[in-house]
Amino acid sequence: MKLLVATTTLLALTAAPAAAGPLQWATTPTHRQPATFNDVATGTGGTWAVGGDQVQDFQDQRPLAMRWDGKTWKPTAQPVKTNAVLESVAVGTAKNVWTVGEDRANPDQPKPLAMHWNGTNWQVVKPPAVPTGSFDDVVLAPDASAWVTGWANVGGKERAVVYRYAAGKWQALNTGLDTSINGNVLSVLPAKNAWLGLNAGLAHFDGKRWTLVKDLPTDGSQIPTGIAAAGPKNIWLVGVRYQSGIKPLAMHYNGTKWTQVAAPTGMAQLYGVALRNNGPVAVGERFEGPNQTAKPYVLQLSGPKFVPAPAPKAATGTLTAVTVAKDRTWAVGMTATATTAPFAALAAYTR
Prior knowledge:
By secondary structure, the chain is mostly beta strands. It is built from no helices and 28 strands. The chain has one domain: Neuraminidase (6 Propeller), CATH 2.120.10.
């Protein structure tokens, strides 16, 4: 099952880079409290953010999907009225938007949740026939098919899974994942060149099977949570390292091997990465003070290393995802006025 406290996400990179300039964040009202955003993505179908509304004394959630209309965030009606949360969104055309997460109508037996936006409303897509499971990430492949990852009970064992949805059916792409734990994040270049970040390592797909790469350990000490691909020979990966505490993980792939990129060593972890002006911008949370209060955290590449960059202002909070639209870079997550206050869904942009 999923081991990370916060949500992992993959970032849409199909839009053009944002305009040049430093990161100067402007927070946009979402009018959702208590609520959280777990992912944001953009495409020709616009910019969407998904997460969950908190209800019933914060014991339950309801799916939350909002679309930016150019001036404000607009909520969309949800077909699922029971306990459930959305973890990831992928945006293609205006009639091809996918979101996935977890259906917790029976908390003891969670089920994968998948929904498709047809340009007018959300429709639930019947998930694969597994007794329990959860979807953590969805991406659209170059052929516009939806790929999802997460975990499921397969053959009586909880394990990482990947499925492709095409022609109205789920195709299991699980060969090689028998001993892997939870799929966190996907990147699909062509269908025969895909990457999967796991709770215990990183795997590559050649069209037939997944193979764990030797450049990342498989002991859970380095966990990928975000991937941004400029091309098959230029891919960025971020996540968390467990080394004398929680540290940011950043890596780069040059078409031959993955190498670690230097990042600040303070207590922090990263959840998402996107390409702005062809350079990676990573987001997550850093921990401050004796109580280790979480604060929004942003890193940018400067020469050979990642360095701290301005982040959206918040007394406390986390950035869970980032995406690059035509005219701006969006970061989403959650924020609160104090550590004891309810979280509100956070969305901020920089041009």
